[in-house]
Amino acid sequence: MAPFLLNHIALSVKNVDASIEFYQKVFQFEEIENTASNSKTRWLSLGEGRQLHLIPRPNLEVITNKAVHFALSTSNLEEFVKHLVHLEIEYSDWTNTIKKDYVRKDGVEQFYFQDLDGYWIEVNNAIQ
């Protein structure tokens, strides 16, 4: 069987404009053209051909927990933490210790925060 690669992550959001602003402010993702439809769904580039699709659902109620998340890696976790602090975005480790970085058994540091709709995002330094 041929290998599979991640193509995109799709999230339903209450306010697509506010979500675009959030993801651009936090991650500096570039908005790209929605080539699939003429809907109000907006796309952001995650790099390397991967995308984040934000689908407007004004009546959305997100019920999730930290175990349901997507993870992004960076080679400079410390700089990103400073960025989050500047943006006044609270983050925590896996056990909800505020502003504490968790180090996994394999040595990877990670922490979590939520977007405007309550989706959990992990950021770690597992760059390969």
How would the blueprint of this fold be written?
Elements: E1 8-13, H1 16-27, E2 30-32, E3 42-47, E4 50-56, E5 69-73, H2 77-86, E6 102-103, E7 109-114, E8 120-124
Parallel strand pairs: 1-4, 5-8
Antiparallel strand pairs: 2-3, 3-4, 6-7, 7-8
Summary keywords:
alpha/beta, 8 strands, 2 domains, globular, four-stranded mixed β-sheet, 17% helix, Signal recognition particle alu RNA binding heterodimer, srp9/1, 128 residues
Which term fits the overall shape?
Answer: globular
Assess the beta-strand content as a share of residues: 25-35%
Q: Please mark out the parts with pLDDT under 50 across 5 or more consecutive residues, or reply none.
A: none
CATH T-level topology of the largest domain: Signal recognition particle alu RNA binding heterodimer, srp9/1
End-to-end C-alpha gap: 24 Å
Largest β-sheet summary: 4 strands, mixed
CATH hierarchy class name of the largest domain:
Alpha Beta
Structural class: alpha/beta
Count of all domains: 2
* Number of beta strands: 8
Order of helices and strands: EHEEEEHEEE
The radius of gyration computed from the alpha-carbon positions, rounded to a whole number of angstroms, is 15 Å
Helix content: 10-25%
Average of per-residue pLDDT values:
93
